[in-house]
What we know:
Elements: H1 10-23, H2 35-38, H3 51-72, H4 74-77, H5 94-99, H6 101-112, H7 126-141, E1 157-158, H8 161-172, H9 202-219, E2 229-234, E3 239-240, E4 248-249, E5 253-261, E6 265-276, E7 283-289, E8 292-299, E9 307-316, E10 319-327, E11 331-333, E12 343-358, H10 367-372, H11 383-399, H12 405-420, H13 425-437, H14 440-443, E13 444-445, H15 457-461, E14 466-467, H16 470-481, H17 488-496, H18 502-514, H19 519-529, H20 550-569, E15 582-585, H21 587-593, E16 604-607, H22 612-615, H23 625-630, H24 639-650, H25 676-684, H26 687-701, E17 715-716, E18 719-720, E19 724-726, E20 732-734, H27 736-745, H28 747-763, H29 772-784, H30 789-797, H31 800-803, E21 804-805, H32 809-822
Amino acid sequence: MARRISHPYxxxxxxxxxxxxxxxxxxxxxxxxxxxxxLAPAPANPAVTNxxxxxxxxxxxxxxxxxxxxxxxxxxxGNGKHKGGVALDHYANLAAIQADHRTWGTIADVLSxxxxxxxxxxxxxxxxxxxxxxxxxxxxSLCDCTGPRDPGRVAIHRLNRTEYNNTxxxxxxxxxxxxxxxxxxxxxxxxxxIADVLSMSPLLAEKYLSAAxxxxxxxxxxxxxxxxxxxxxxxxxxxxxxxxNGGDLQxxxxxxxxxxxxxxxxxxxxxxxxxDKFGEENAKMVxxxxxxxLQTFSVSAPRRAPRAYKFxxxxxxxxxxxxxxxxxxNKVDRNNPDRKKRGDRNxxxxxxxIEGPFNAAPPPLPASHKRIFFVTPGPSLSExxxxxxxxxxxAARAFRRPVSVxxxxxxxxxxxxxxxxxEDFVDAVKVTLEAxxxxxxxxxxxEVDPPTAGMTAEQLRNAPAHNxxxxxxxxxxxxxxWSSMPDDELFRLAQAKTLxxxxxxxxxxxxxxxxxKSAALVNNFVGQWLETRALDDYHPDPDKFPEFDDDLRKAMxxxxxxxxxxxxxxxxxxxxLLDANYTFLNERLAKHYGIPGITGEQFRRVNLADCGEAxxxxxxxxxxxxxxxxxxxxxxxxxxxRGKFLLEQMLGTPPPPPPADVPPLxxxxxxxxxxxxxxxxxxxxxxxxxxxxxxxxxxxxALENFNALGAWRSEDNGFKIDPSGKLPDGTILNGPAxxxxxxxxxxxxxxxxxxxxxxxxxxxxxxxxxxTCTLRDVAGEVEKxxxxxxxxxxxxxxxxxxxxxxxxxxxxxxxxxxxQASKGAPETK
Length: 829
């Protein structure tokens, strides 16, 4: 282990993070911390339209909707007033409203729930409120797909904990996972890789510096020699032969043990021993290694005052060897007539010490060290030149792009400072690499807009979307499919500027999905979309469900993961997520399902048609215990949570949050008498609740045959389960099979929802109204290609949303205004 570098650069390295963030415009920006909590959901059924329809909706705003707000809302939110940060008079037309789709989604929510206007203010007519809410829903769902696509934009994106661990692994070759000590990542839109919510704190900055030190300690060998170490073995712990006891040898024989010699080299043996004197001859002690005699000692010291007998053995090979101290000249005479000639010679071995290695060859350097120090100083390469090459190559891989001369020179200032402080070459390079690992260019995925020098405000406002660079595309691909940095192949294609080529992109996606690192897509995307990652912290009531244990928890997660992984590897239909004739089971999970004939801990693919009646209750992720458990409560099932899960995660039509004055039904720990259905029926009698529950409850009731752990049952608390229900469109449900039929009847909605979730995860941002066209195109490609998973991935990565970005025009305009104001120039309009 390298010694901790002691120099004045620790504070400077922390400052590298802070200064870099200021330069990137992060410090001082208002970055929301929990986007998923307060944001209104996207419109349920986005429509695709043309310019004429958009113009008509825009006209409706001017003629009827804006006057509604002038009359009912401008007293607080217009005419120069902006209570709560909302100024409705700033929205001149439909385009302005669609550009701020989150705010207007919230406006629709507060109007529909009668939160606004306040109770003590005049209330608008119900029909006017309904018309306004309906218009907002329509406005936010419209999208003209006939013109250029708006790819949106992603804020600079801090690596989350998983991405950091994986990037360190692939950059350094050290699978250390330092981010396990980091604060938990915030989530938004259901995922923990959303750029807008991945903020930076002083604590996290310190954690990054500590992690950089730790991982480089693991990757780099700063002391390339074996320091001699001493191992002491007490006699009482040694084994003995021929009836001897520990170190007390009263007959010929030996005491022995084994020692791990760390390297080839010389080792010194020190045997502290004494004798019981008898006769003219001293006790003889033979030092042996692997039963080979190394040295014979004449032990003259008495038992009561043993002394050390030393021998240095040359050229011992590394590895485990047997060492021994053998007594060879025992003598005893207890019956001699002459009492003076009676006696018993014995050997007493008190301790055996082994010290070394001496004169050992340097230890072999790990692959991680060789990867970093690919050149070494010598007669033809000076230390500064070698440091420059090492730092330049490392920074290019760490920053995931070519680095400029100025960037390398900035890092080399750290190297020179460390050398001036007395550090040797390796340690000075190491601290420079620490600075690299706390740079924002490593900690953040940064996409740079084209230069805008000399552009007018109007040109900035209308700046077109542009292709991201090939290096930025390589990072988008790798963090989407691997949750890690690009590999050498992606870097090579980025350098050649061929990664944007559709055929090359297709080939890379296939290669990356076949790589074991694509398991990250299963663990991170699927685990959050289907919420099975939450099983790690799920604890059902042990009194009600004593059968639940860690083995069952792991099996639940593994079934979902293996099913999705199989879909990826075999390029199967995404509709199998809704219904399939197979799954993956081991003995523990099969027993939970009531399926016989599966033995052992190993998972295997099981044909459900061969599983009897129990097999008819399974098929698709909705009938997997992992999903059913995480959508239940700790003490019982929850038709509401299961119904909401289906609407939100499978169909993309989440119900709005309940009104503030309605108490929640599901508390999770309160005892229930009778079936859950009875209590929900009473709850639905409240008109404020019925509008949402008529959508959720029938879906949840149809899954009531699955208990809170996803096991099949026919009764609940002694009452026969009634799984029947009717959806608002008249569809009759009578059990899980009907739920799957209902979802498959809306398979295009499911595909669009899955595409939306995947696009959100892939880009690290929530979808907006302008993504409607992309999602329509992706769904169309999937349908055209028989719903194969590869069609969805391929369409996503070749979309404008993935390949392009819109510049940060607003930020540039603000800077332009500030610059003009500082010169006394009129403010840019």
